[in-house]
Every structure is written in structure tokens, then in C-alpha cells.
Amino acid sequence: MISCYEKGMINNVEVSKFKTVSISAVIRMPLEREYVTFNALLPSVLKRGCKKYNTIKDINIKTYEMFGAVFDANVIKKGEEQILQFFIEVVDKNGLVDKAIEFLADIILNPLTENNSFVKSYVDTEKENLRSDILGRKNNKKEYAKLRCIELMCENEPFGIYGDGYEEDIDKINPKNLYERYRYIIDNFNIEFYSVGNLSDEKLKALVDEYFKLSPRKFLEANQNKRFLKNDIKEVKESEELSQGKLCIGMRTDVKPNSDDFYALLVANEIFGGSANSKLFLKLREENGLCYYINSFVYRFKSIISVQAGIKEEDYEKSISMIKECVDDVQKGRFEKENFDSAILGLIKSYESIVDYPQGIMDFNLTQNMLCVRDDLKTVSKKLRNVSMKDISNIMKMVYIDTIYFLC
Questions:
Q1: Which residues have C-beta within 8 Å of that of residue 18, sequence separation ≥ 6?
Q2: Cα gap 302→306, rounded to integer Å
Q3: Do residue 155 and residue 238 come from a single domain?
Q4: Helix H or strand E segment including 248
Q5: pLDDT tens digits, residue range 360-380?
Q6: Nearest-CA neighbor of 355 among 391, 381, 386?
Q7: CA 354, CA 377: separation in Å to the nearest integer?
Q8: How many distinct structural domains can be found in the chain?
């Protein structure tokens, strides 16, 4: 059930298969370079303590009293939005769901403050933790190359912004301006609620009404893919001391992420580079031994296909040429019916497995809501089965290389 009302959105999946109830309070905001580091720091500061539970120790005692409830808060990037998530999972008994939602409200709405600012020691500690995390992302060269490629590819778009912030912004943050940013978020953005477990829609809405006493505010508009004119391919090489070069290719498409065509794009990507039977894996790794690893995946909200490969520097030109050949093969329908069927089956199994994990269900529903898509998991499976081999060729003809990045 999805219920929109003046305080926000409630998305509840009432099922009895789980012994726990999982609840997520979500605050969606546009990705903005000016505020992205402030926003990234907020969850870690908020979960350090609130007026009712001043310290991490107090919070741990409270979750222990709730039969070992699991609590966490973090920030994620989805499309061109930055999202604050506050999650709690409790055993479904003894009124613990009521206590869990009250606890979330205490953490989110009643932070611990001093002189109309956050607690300095908490902010200082979490600033250093965030600094360490940001600097650490460059140590994972494969992940860094992927993020750097997107940054270059989308340098004039919000999608090119790092969702976990920037090291150079951290020293600009202090307890007062961080608290001011927090107040602006709480006063202007919706808090959406996602729940999975043996909890009725009416009960969840009543609890939200009781503990989250918020004034009406506007909904964030649906996250839509923007159209871009085809430009010359952007090619960037950067050097570091590496034992293995990291190649990342960003490809744009004209596919709307909330259209039925997106399902054909998913299947096309599986055939192209999304599995061990894909064109990329078989041609570049198995047949020619050009790469240590290679795969492709789709950024749904932007309909971007990203190719990642670990290669030797001397194989750079040959690898790119063969990747282009693989694109051409799928565009011209040069793939086996067996691989087509396997790609669809693999995607369906992946979606069907979501129902086994409460957090997976909530994340799926969040994505659908952001795109204003009402397809449930059964509908997704049906639409995947309706994709034809001709659809694959047609959709792949909409794919073109935008950016080539090589960390060598």
C-alpha cells in the first residue's frame, strides 16, 4: 500500500513471513554540490545521541531493551538525489513497533544540542570519520575509476556529484552551520516511511501521525532522466602507480528509466556485459585474454551503461575496439536465443529474490516511488518475459559511448 498525505508518504508491505518489522524513515533531497557534504555528515551526527538518549551507550541500551533492535542511519545517492535513511528492525511483539517509531522520531526530530548547535565533540569526531571515508574511496582503484568516470561524464549534471561529500568541504562545517542545515531539511523536506512486516497500514499511519508531528510540505518531484545531445567521445587518461589499469566506459542511452523500454535495456545489458555468458566476458576475457575482469551494469535513474575492465596498458586500444565490436554485435542481433533466455531468467530470479529481504523490498519500493512507477515485482517479471530479441537490438541501437576513462 502506498498512501500519500500531507506529512509525506507511507509505503507499507504487510506480510507475516518475517519475525520482525523493518521500518525506514527516508528524507529525499536534490543532489547539490554546496550542501552534499553537510548532508552526508548529518546521519552519523544524529545517531551519536539525541535529547532522550544522549550518547551511543544510551542508544545501545535502548535498542537492547527492545529485544536487540537493529538501528542504523546513513546517506545514499540515488539518481540525482541524496537520501538520508534511518532504519530500525524490531521483533514483532510486546508493542515494540510503537517504541521503534517513537525511537526514530527521537533520533530524527530531537537531536542533542548545545547553544542552538550540535554537540561539538560529536561533530568533530564524525568530521574526521567522514574525511577518512572520503579519502579511503581512492584506495579502491576499481571503485574510484567507476566514480571518476561518472564525475567526468556528468560534470554539468547533479549525477556527477559524489554522494558522500568532498574532503575539501569538511573544514567549512561547524556545529552551528551543520545544525542550521539540519533545521532547513527538517522544516522543508518530506520524511517518507517504508515498512515491511506484520503491521497494518492503519497502524503505521497512526504511529507516524502520533510521533512525527510535521507541518505540510511539498513532495520532491519525480526523478527523471534528462536528454542529452550526442557529443564527441570524451577520453581521459590519468596515471597512478598500479599493477593493473582500470578502464571505465560510460555509455548514454535515450531510454526513459520509468518506461517499459527500460526492461529491454536491462536484458540487453545482461547479454552485452552483465553476466558470465555475456559478449564482453566471452570475447575479451575468455577468447582473447585481454582483461582480468570485465562487466557492465546500468545506472537506472540515468539509463547509463557503465563498462568496467582491468587491463594492461598496452591492451588499451585493442580492448576499446573489442568493446565496440560487442556493442555492434548486440545491435545487429548477433547473440544466441539461449543467451537471451538466460539473461531474462537471471534478471527475473534477481528480482524475485528481493522478497526474501525486508531492506531489499523497501529499497525496491523507494526506487519505484522516486520514478513514479507502480510496477510491483510480479509486474516486473511479466514485463521482462515480454521483451523480445528484436527489442534487444532496437534498444541497443540507442546506446552510444560518451566517456572513456583509463586509470593507468
A1: 92, 196, 197, 198, 358
A2: 11
A3: no
A4: strand 245-252
A5: 999 999 999 999 898 999 999
A6: 381
A7: 9
A8: 2
For residues 395 and 264, the answer to whether their CB atoms sit within 8 Å is yes
pTM listed for this prediction: 0.93
For residue 283, being part of any structural domain is answered with yes
Q: Are residues 176 and 270 in the same domain?
A: no
Element housing 329 (H / E):
helix 316-331
CA distances from 133 to 19, 147, 245, 403 (A): 34, 14, 23, 27
Render pLDDT for 37-61 as a digit per residue (tens, 0 to 9).
Answer: 999 999 999 999 999 999 999 999 9
Q: How far is CA 377 from CA 23, 221, 231, 349, 404, in A?
A: 20, 23, 37, 11, 35
284 neighbors 316 (Cβ within 8 angstroms): no
Coil, helix or strand at residue 304: strand
Q: What is the DSSP string of 80-145?
A: TEEEEEEEEEEESSTTHHHHHHHHHHHHHHSB-BSSSSB-HHHHHHHHHHHHHHHHHTTTSHHHHH
Amino acid at 382: K
Residue 197: what residue type?
Answer: G
Contact 34/196 with Cβ under 8 angstroms?
no
* Three-state SS at 160: helix
Rounded distance, CA 65 to CA 2, Å?
Answer: 31
